[in-house]
């Protein structure tokens, strides 16, 4: 190692920037950037009513919002995996006319404001929506104002993160293994299940974590499409917003709780799945 | 998303100040009346501003609409208002306690401003009234999809007062963050009924029907108006208040769904 380091130093002799010392023109904005991201969160910690904390986070309304958030985000992630992984495979591994357009369309929820997604869902799946009116007339099913609407809103907003991540992993994966399996007589479904999927599992895991985090934080589409009722559709972000209307301190407590829980879950996943980096 | 932070209030003050300085060259002889008014007065005051400018040639009316409490905060941090019209007496009280009213005007008309209009709750239903709602008690029916304002926002407090007066325990299907969101859910037919203000029903036109109910009398929102102590044009400001309280002012207010005392 030492010889290699010496060699590197030797090669760098002609450079103006000496190795090991970052130039201030990068350091300064880097510190400013880190401070900008960390300070608001630190502000939450400083302003939090710590003596009251334990009592406030165990209030039934808070716990029901947290539980609702956790299970809906998980359900949205499962739904995204079931639909999104095959979609990513379709985009990465097949050729069909209009594939580029389809890819652009399915990533639209990444760029539109979530509230627009909520409006769109309401106009399609609402009681008077394009499809929703038939669900309501034929089966008596109304989706808005139910936890199902929360899951759908979250899936709409979060699934593209998974699709983009998995598609990238599929494109980066070495296809020779798949070709070898195919030449040995495996069908396309078998190749996918036994070769492709195991190879891109880290990418799927990373995409799922990102998808879950995005679903957990979903606000705009949820409040527009699913409504806001304690225990049914009032997830943590909605609870934070509602509390902010009258009791900023309660909003602070809820924000900290959401922050703590999501960090804990992400850290635990990272521990467990070493491949998620 | 909306944030009600002090930072935003300051930004608004700065923006309002910029706007005022930018428009100051518009008035021919420099007479300019600045009116801060609750957002629900947008249509009414915009119409009255046209009348006022006609009656007082060479005068320009600058209107600043926002949530009442936001406006009160702006006035109390030094925003240049001549007149303040609030959607409830509590916010007017904040200005009375803060920046204060014009002493001469207040001595003559009232220390807490004068109430010039009132807004009451209505049951709003979609035009086809799918759940056949006729009175407040129908909203307590479990099969009726209901949207109400969250209790944390002003219209939610009014809703709670009315339902309490009726002795009803109405459990809605969603608590919306403001009265317009309730109205939208009704207009789209996503809920069978919601509680909104009479002015909202008028604004909805044919997209919703308003149903009066007796207990609404328990939750009347009074709209006070006053000349603020920082007024540069106290005489013009007093004339504005007179116009709002005049017959033609009452006409415009009533057409928008307000009750006029």
UniProtKB/TrEMBL annotation, chain A:
ABC transmembrane type-1 domain span: 66-269
Function per UniProt: Part of the binding-protein-dependent transport system for molybdenum; probably responsible for the translocation of the substrate across the membrane.
Record keyword Membrane present: yes
Keyword Oxidoreductase: no
Record-given protein name: Molybdenum transport system permease
Subcellular location: Cell membrane
One Pfam assignment: BPD_transp_1
Membrane-spanning intervals of the chain: 21-46, 66-92, 104-125, 137-170, 191-215, 250-269
Keyword annotations: Cell membrane, Membrane, Molybdenum, Transmembrane, Transmembrane helix, Transport
Broad class of where this protein is predominantly found: membrane
UniProtKB/TrEMBL annotation, chain B:
UniProt keyword annotation of Cell membrane present: no
Pfam families membership: SBP_bac_11
Signal peptide: 1-27
Protein name, per record: Molybdate transport system substrate-binding protein
Binding site for molybdate: 40, 68, 179, 197
GO molecular function: metal ion binding; molybdate ion binding
Family: Belongs to the bacterial solute-binding protein ModA family.
Keyword Cell membrane: no
Domain of life: Bacteria
């Amino acid at each position: 190692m030492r010889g290699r380091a010496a060699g590197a130093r030797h090669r760098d002799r002609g450079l103006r920037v000496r190795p090991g010392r970052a130039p201030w023109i990068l350091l300064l904005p880097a510190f400013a950037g880190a401070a900008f991201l960390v300070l608001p969160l630190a502000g939450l910690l400083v302003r939090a009513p710590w003596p009251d904390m334990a009592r406030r986070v165990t209030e039934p309304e808070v716990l029901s919002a947290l539980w609702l958030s956790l299970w809906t985000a998980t359900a949205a992630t499962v739904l995204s995996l079931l639909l999104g992984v095959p979609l990513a495979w379709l985009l990465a591994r097949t050729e069909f006319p209009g594939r580029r357009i389809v890819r652009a369309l399915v990533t639209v929820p990444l760029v539109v404001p979530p509230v627009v997604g909520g409006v769109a869902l309401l106009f399609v799946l609402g009681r008077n929506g394009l499809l929703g009116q038939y669900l309501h007339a034929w089966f008596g099913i109304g989706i808005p104002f139910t936890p199902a609407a929360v899951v759908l809103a979250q899936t709409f907003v979060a699934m593209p993160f998974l699709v983009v991540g998995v598609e990238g992993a599929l494109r980066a994966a070495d296809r020779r293994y798949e070709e070898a399996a195919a030449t040995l007589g495996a069908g396309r479904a078998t190749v996918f299940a036994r070769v492709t999927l195991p190879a891109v599992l880290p990418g799927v895991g990373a995409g799922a974590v990102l998808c879950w985090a995005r679903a957990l934080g979903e606000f705009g589409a949820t409040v527009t499409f699913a409504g806001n009722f304690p225990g049914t559709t009032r997830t943590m972000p909605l609870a934070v917003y509602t509390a902010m209307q009258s009791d900023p301190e309660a909003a602070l407590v809820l924000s900290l709780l959401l922050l703590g829980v999501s960090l804990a879950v992400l850290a635990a996943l990272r521990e467990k799945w070493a491949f998620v980096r | 998303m909306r944030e009600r932070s002090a930072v935003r209030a300051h930004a608004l003050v700065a923006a309002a100040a910029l706007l005022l300085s930018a428009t100051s060259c518009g008035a021919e002889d420099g007479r300019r009346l600045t009116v801060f008014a609750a957002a629900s007065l947008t249509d009414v005051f915009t119409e009255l501003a046209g009348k006022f400018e006609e009656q007082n040639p060479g005068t320009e009316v600058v209107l600043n609409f926002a949530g009442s409490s936001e406006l009160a905060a702006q006035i109390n941090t030094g925003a240049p208002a001549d007149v303040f019209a609030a959607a409830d007496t509590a916010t007017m009280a904040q200005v009375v306690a803060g920046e204060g009213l014009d002493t001469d005007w207040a001595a003559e008309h009232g220390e807490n401003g004068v109430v010039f209009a009132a807004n009451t709750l209505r049951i709003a239903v979609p035009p086809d009234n799918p759940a056949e709602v006729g009175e407040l008690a129908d909203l307590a029916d479990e099969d009726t999809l209901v949207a109400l304002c969250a209790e944390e926002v002003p219209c939610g407090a009014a809703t709670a007062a009315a339902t309490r007066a009726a002795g009803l325990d109405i459990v809605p299907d969603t608590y919306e963050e403001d009265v317009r969101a309730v109205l939208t859910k009704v207009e789209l037919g996503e809920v069978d009924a919601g509680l909104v203000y009479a002015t909202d029903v008028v604004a909805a036109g044919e997209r919703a029907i308003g149903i009066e109910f007796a207990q609404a009398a328990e939750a009347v929102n009074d709209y006070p108006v006053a000349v603020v102590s920082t007024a540069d044009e106290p005489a013009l400001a007093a004339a504005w208040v007179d116009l709002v309280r005049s017959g033609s002012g009452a006409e415009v207010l009533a057409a928008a769904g307000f009750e006029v005392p």
